[in-house]
Amino acid sequence: MNMQPIFITGIGTNVGKTIVSAIVTEALHANYWKPIQAGFEDGTDALQIVNLISNTATAIFPEVYKLQMPASPHIAARTEQLQINLNHIINQQPQTSNSKLVIEGAGGILVPLNDQEFIIDLIEQLQAKAILVSRNYLGSINHSLLTAAICKQRNIDVLGWIFNDTYLDYEDEIVQWTGYPKIASIPFTKCINKTFILQQANEIRLSLQQLIYDKASTQKNI
């Protein structure tokens, strides 16, 4: 069964999208692609994925836009006298024999890519299923519910939540309020390495595969 790409997006910046992308990529032995990288002084997210996954099946595809400034993509592009073009990104989408593709976004779901389009427009045009990443911090309930609300408004196909870090026990309430299931809850660790990513991937592999299969089967029968 050919699988729609999975787009990893979040409720904001620095919520753990790259860690979650590594875990999902490892769990599915999928390919990985981050089309827009804004800021790479400390290395790119793609390079971090290379250093975190253990399987040998994953291909890491190059960025379409690799912008030096660590800022909103539309601002980072402007400083280099560029404009991010979504059609150009769509045309560069990797096509390989491995039908599984994990795509990592930049920032939150309403991060601007140019004067008119946002990350959510990219998800829509890529016809991807979304995984929403929520990091537990003071204020994350509001940010999570707002993210879910815009997904519902735009009819984005959301697989579910992956929660990251630990603050207070309200993950199940976010699940209840949004109607999107919890895929996983990633515990806080000071040591993010291949061993940790592989452990988390092994824990979610079967349930994630089943969720994807059930979603695809349901949509096929509609």
Give the arrangement of secondary structure elements.
Layout: E1 6-10, H1 17-28, E2 31-33, E3 36-38, H2 45-52, E4 60-61, E5 65-67, H3 73-79, H4 86-91, E6 101-108, H5 119-125, E7 129-135, H6 140-153, E8 158-164, H7 171-178, E9 182-186, H8 194-221
Helix pairs in contact: 1-2, 1-8
Distance between the termini: 17 Å
Class inferred from helices and paired strands: alpha/beta
Put simply, the count of helices is: 8
Q: Averaged pLDDT, please?
A: 92
> How many strands?
9
Estimated share of beta-strand residues: 15-25%
The helix/strand order is EHEEHEEHHEHEHEHEH
- Helical percentage: 40-55%
- Give the overall silhouette: globular
Biggest β-sheet description: 7 strands, parallel
Strand order of the largest sheet: 4-2-6-1-7-8-9
How would you characterize this protein structure?
It is a single chain. The protein is an alpha/beta fold and 222 residues long. The protein contains 8 helices and 9 strands. The strands form 2 sheets. It has a 7-stranded parallel beta sheet, sandwiched between helices. Helix 7 links the parallel strand 8 and strand 9. It is globular, with a radius of gyration of 16 Å.
